[in-house]
Amino acid sequence: MGRPETDWVRRGAVNLLGSGLFGEDALTVQEAELSMLRRLSDSEENILAVQSNIASTYQTLGQFEKALGMEQEIYNKKVVLMGNLNPSTLIAAICLANTLSKMRRFDEVRNFAPDRIAACQRVLGAEHENTLFLRTIYARALFFEDDPEQAETILVDVTRIARRVLGPSHPRTTTAEHELGFVRAPGKFPSSFD
User: Fold this and answer.
1) Can you tell me whether residue 22 is helix, strand or coil?
2) 34/42 Cα distance (integer angstroms)
C-alpha cells in the first residue's frame, strides 16, 4: 500500500477489504488486521471488534468451535471492560448464545440466556430486535430441552411484537415465525437456525 501501518487510511482500507470479502479470503485479511492492531497496541475495543468479525467469518465457514472460543473471549472481555449492561456486551452475549444454539448446546443456552434477556429488556428495550432475537434463541433451546409449551408461548409473544414493531418482512420477524412453525409442527421443516 505504500503507507505506514499507523496511517488511518491504510487501516480503514484493510478493514473495508476484510468486510468486502467472503470466506477464507475475508478470514485472511481479518487475521492480518487483528495482527496489525495488536502490533500497534490499538484499543481493546477495536481489537474486540475485529475479533467479532473473525468469529462471524468462522461461523460462515462452519468452524463453530473456533467461533465459540473467540466469542466467549470477546464476551468475557467486554464484561470486564464495559460491564454486563453495556449494549456492546449484550450483543456479544447474543452472538455467543446464537453460536451455542447452532452447535446444539441447548442446555448452555438455557442457562446463559435468561439473565441476558432481562438485561436486554432493561437496556435495549423489550421490543428491540436484538432482545427479540435472544428470546427466539432461548425459545429454541427450551424446545429442544423438552419444554415445547414455554417455547411456543415465548415465540407467540416474540412474533406478535416483531410483526408490530419491525414489520412482517424483517429478518427477526421471519426467523421467529419460522421457529414458531417448527415448534408447532416439529419435523415438518427444519429450524431456521440449521
Assistant:
1) coil
2) 10
